[in-house]
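Hi there. Long-time user, first ticket. I'm pasting a complex I've been working with (about 621 residues overall). I'd like to know whether the download I got is complete or cut off, because the file seemed smaller than I expected. Thanks.
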Amino acid sequence: MYGFGLAKGLMVTLKNFIRPPFTIQYPEERIPQHPRFRGEEFAWYEERCTGCASCAKYCPLGIIKIVTSEGGRSPQEGGHYDIDVFDIDIGRCMFCGLCVEACPYDALFMGSGFERGRYERQDLVITVDELREAVKKPSTWFRPQLEDSGYDPHKDSALDWRAVGREKWEWHQREKAGARIKFRPARVGDKTQEGDGEARS
Amino acid sequence: MTPFLQENVVFREVYCFLGGNEGNASWCGGDGLLPGGFEWAAYFAAGFVIMFILVNAALLGAAVFVWSERRLLARFQARRGPNRWGPWGIFQPIADLLKLIIKEDIVPNAADRLAFTLVPIIMLMALLLSLAVMPFARNTYLVNLNVGILYIIAVSSMSTIAIFMAGWSSANKYAMFGAMRGVAMLISYEIPLVLSLVGVVLIVGSMSLVSVVEAQTVPFLLVQPLGALVFMLGISAELNRTPFDILEAESEIIAGYHTEYSGIKFALIQAAEMAGVLAASGFLATIFMGGWSGPFWSGQLGAFWFLVKLAGFVMLFIWIRATFPRLRIDQIMAFAWKFLLPLALINFLVTAVQVYFFGFYQGDVPGELTRNELWIMAAINIPVALIAIGIFGRFSREKVRVPEPVFQNIAPSPRTMEVD
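Hi, the file is complete. Here it is re-exported in full:
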């Protein structure tokens, strides 16, 4: 019948008319973000940072600037360098996350924010003071240990530096006390069980 | 004073309040404010009040329509539409208007200045003039012309001239393209549009819109389904709404005939277009849905019933706009000449035969068709409409010849493909 296609088309738009709108009213409501979202304002734990500047070396854009000075104690005594400058020029950052991958001490994490509109380019530089004062809600990107405990940066509160490492805080305590570790998490290359370890290595 | 002005509620109230029984206005209750000899002032004031209401209602209606169209179109596309300023974004057209007013009013160097400036005025004038005969409620109209339907068609055709003036005076090739397309299309659609109303005129026996409403004991949408369909599609083309908006096709010819318009001129053209939809819906409601008459309290709630019907047709226009893509010029022409014109002629023929047999013109005095006769006509006309649409839909199918395949041994030989 002539005109049947027209009626079908009208029904399609009518179906859409009844459907609730897809629009998300941004300032009032947000899309739920994934916990592995790589966002701005990095979560940096000064207590874990040794000032090795691995992040700065691995940054493909060279936008991380670290200046360290010797702290009061020597590294052999458990002291570390003081970090005087830790500038991340987020205006040029491409959020690849290589700095986080490079950090050997789990001191640097991606953030989960995305609202950093500024009028000046220099306002886009995240300084060390800003990193110190920030509420630290690390993204779980490249840090699966955070996901093991079911942590979600968009829902849960800020994490303490003791809680973000690959090992449990108790492990560190015992390590510091010089205790022999009976059990530690299996890693690649470990020979905990014969055969199995070889197969992995 | 002419009698139709006495019937007009607004006119009578204002005139009697000011002028009263002075002069020969014996139909007023008592004395008015003005002393004797100033009836002309009362007459003038009453006329001014009506003009003021009509013009502002049309422009405000256009604003409300712009808002509702944007909201509804958005909803048809699963969006939200403007919702920032005011509740549900209802002040959005005011923001639009402010923006357009403070924009620079550009007239191109090569433009024909006079014609260019006249275009928005003519477009708006055509619209406002056509509103003069529209009965909004019982005894609420400016004029009850005995040639109302003819008058509407004549006046609304003036926008074609305005469109061509816009295209010509802009000295812009895209504007000219749009205007040429527009003139070709609009003139073609005039014919089925006029013919679709002939059936109504035959049934009613008068061209006055008031008598059309009064004769509608059964909505003419049922009695004249073909006429209503053809009128609806024809007026949709006259309004340059989306399936027929080749004269301002954004993806082809920038903005068509109003490419060069900006600022307040553009706002007026837009207002005329938008209010044109309202006027068309109003005429559809008046001619085919019974105007101010409703299920109850037609006298008191007449304006309400009218607005409900008008809103329904506006919704239908927006729905159509949200659904259908733009047609090509040849498709549009084929639609007018191969489909709408035969349907309008069939409608005319069938109605004429019916009216003849129901004895409407037996004797010299035209009577009125009774309710039962109208129902019988509806029962005949609806199947006729379906059959006619089926037949002429098949006839007006476009044959597209598929180009001959290069490798004859692989693909089948030349064939024709039927395209709806």
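A couple of notes from our side: The beta strands of chain A are 39-44, 64-69, 82-89, 108-111, 125-126. The interface with chain B takes residues 1-3, 5-6, 9-10, 12-14, 16-17, 19-23, 25 of chain A (CB under 8 Å).
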